[in-house]
Amino acid sequence: MTMLYKSWSLVIFMSALFCSFFSIWFLMYNNYIIFEYNLTSFFICDINFFFYFDWMSLLFLSVVLYISSMVVLYSACYMREESMKKIFLILVLSFILSMLLLIVCLNVLTILIGWDGLGLVSYCLVAYYQNESSQVASLLTVMTNRIGDVGMLMAIIFMSSCGSWGILEYGYLKNMNIIIIMLMLAALTKSAQMPFSAWLPAAMAAPTPVSALVHSSTLVTAGVYLMLRFFFFFEWSLFSKSLFYISLMTTLMAGIVAAFEMDLKKVIAMSTLSQLGTMFLVVSVGEFILGFFHLLSHAVIKAMLFLAAGVAIHSSGGYQDMRKLVCLSSVSPVVSSCMAVGCLSLSGFPFTSGFYSKDALLEFLYSLHFNMWIGSLIFLTIIFTVVYSFRICFFSILMSGGTFSYYYCVIDSEFVVSIFMLCFVSIFFGASMSWGCFVTMYSFYLTWGWKMVNNLILIVPVLMMCFYSVVFLSKSNVFVKQLEFFFANMWYIPCVNLMALKLVSKMSNYYKVVDNCWVEELSSMGLYKYFHTSGKILFFMQQFKMMTLVFYTFLLFLFFVIL
C-alpha cells in the first residue's frame, strides 16, 4: 500500500510539472485554449461543457497538484497504521479530481459538479476517524457548505434566463444583482468568511494530511478562485464594498483568535482564515491578480506548516496543545528549520516567499488612502499576523512542554522529503513569480516612511508579546482571563452557528411531526376517518330510530289488542 501511495504521488508530481510548464508558456504568449462539448439543449438553454485553460488556471492547477503530490507522499507514512488506507487514498484522489473540475471549467453547471464534489469528499475526510468530535465537525462542515451550494444553485437558476451558464457571457446576464448575491454567498461559505467561520477550526478533527490539502490550499481557496473568475461582476460596486467589510472583520477576528488559541492545528487554521480574508480584501478593491499571487504563495506555505505540525503532533503522542509539544528542533532539525522558514514567510520576513506577495499587497492598500479607522484595522490585522506566526515558531521549535519528552520517535524519510520539497518551493516561489511573471503588473510609488512601515510591523508585535507576558500573564486578572476566553472562542461565532443548526434540527422535527400527523389528519386520511365515523354514527342513529319505530308499533298493537 505504501508503494501505491508513492506511485500516485509521482504521477501527480509529473502532472504538476506539466501544468507549470504550459502555464509559463501561456503567460509569455498570452494564449488560452477552450474545449467545448455540447451535451444537450433544453428549450433555449444549451447545456455545454467548457474546459478553459489559460495561465491562471494552469498555474493554480500546478500548485494544487504539487501540494497534493507531497501530501500523498506524506500520507504514505502518516496513514501507515490505519485500517482504511485504500479508502483514504481514493477520497484524496476524488478530492483532487473535483478541484481540477472547479479550476478548468468555464460553465457554472460544470463548476457545480466540482463544487459539490469538494463538499461531499471533504465531509468524508473530516469524518474519517469516526469518533464523536469528527462526526460533529463533519456535520457542521457539510451543513455550512450546503448554504453556499444553495447559493450556487440559485445563481444557476437566474442565469438560465439568458440561455447560457458560461462565464464569458457575464456582460449579457439579466438579474445581475441577484446572481452577484448568490455567488457571494457561495464564495463566503466555502472560504469560511464571517459569519460562516466556525466550520474551519472544527474541521481540524480530520487527519493532518487532510488539513494540509483540504483546509489550506484547495477547498478554502475555492471561494477566492470563484471570485477571481467572476471578478467583473463585483468590481467597484456596492457588493464589493460589502465584501471589503466582511473580509476585513474576518481577518481581524481570525488574527485575534490565532493570537490566543493554544491548539496548534487550530492556530494554523485561523491563520489560514486570516489570509483568506486578506485575499478577499484585495479582490474587493479591484486587484484580482495580486490576490491570486497571494493565494498561490500562501497555499504552499500553509501546506508545509500543516505537515510540519503533523510531525510535531506525531512526536508528542497525538497532543495538539502547544504547551505540551516536544521541541521540534530536537526531533528533526530539518523539519524544524522548514517550519521556521514557513513562519517567517507567513509573517512577511524580507526575501521569503510571503514577503513578495504581502509587501506588494500592503503597498497597494497604502496607496488607496483609507480613512483612519479602516487604516487602523488593517494595521491591527497585519500586527496579529506577525504575532501568531512567532507564536507558532516559539511553541513548536524553541519551547518544549517537557511532559512527553520520552515520546521522541524516529522521523521517516517521507515526512522529511515532503516537507523539505514544500519548503524549497516556498523559498523561491515568491521571488520567481514576482520577478518573472508579475514583474510588469505592479509599480507603487510611496514615500520612504510608508516603505519602512512594513519593516516596523515585524518589530512592534514582538514588543507587544513581551509587554503582554510581563503585565498580564504575571497577574491573575479575572477580566483578562474572560477576555482571552472570548477571543479564543471566535467571538462566540461557533455557538451561534450551533444554535442555528439546532434550530434547523428542531424545524426538521416539527416538519416530521406535521408531515406524519397533522397533514394526514387534515388531508385524505383525516377526511376518510371523519366520514367513516360520521357514517357509523348515522347508521347507529338510523338503526336506533328503526328499533324505536318497531317498539312503538308493538306497543300500539298491544293497546288495540287489550281494548
Automatic annotation (TrEMBL):
Residues 388-562 form the NADH dehydrogenase subunit 5 C-terminal domain. The keyword Translocase applies. The chain crosses the membrane at residues 7-29, 49-75, 87-104, 150-172, 178-200, 212-236, 242-260, 267-286, 325-348, 368-387, 415-444, 456-473, 485-504, 544-562. Keywords: Electron transport, Membrane, Mitochondrion, Mitochondrion inner membrane, NAD, Respiratory chain, Translocase, Transmembrane, Transmembrane helix, Transport, Ubiquinone. Residues 46-83 form the NADH-Ubiquinone oxidoreductase (complex I) chain 5 N-terminal domain. Its EC number is 7.1.1.2. Its main location: mitochondrion. One of its GO terms (molecular function) is NADH dehydrogenase activity. It is a multi-pass membrane protein. Pfam families: NADH5_C, Proton_antipo_M, Proton_antipo_N. It is found in: Mitochondrion inner membrane. InterPro entries: NADH_DH_su5_C, ND/Mrp_TM, NU5C-like, Proton_antipo_N. Belongs to the complex I subunit 5 family. Core subunit of the mitochondrial membrane respiratory chain NADH dehydrogenase (Complex I) that is believed to belong to the minimal assembly required for catalysis. Complex I functions in the transfer of electrons from NADH to the respiratory chain. The immediate electron acceptor for the enzyme is believed to be ubiquinone. Core subunit of the mitochondrial membrane respiratory chain NADH dehydrogenase (Complex I) which catalyzes electron transfer from NADH through the respiratory chain, using ubiquinone as an electron acceptor. Essential for the catalytic activity and assembly of complex I. This is NADH-ubiquinone oxidoreductase chain 5.
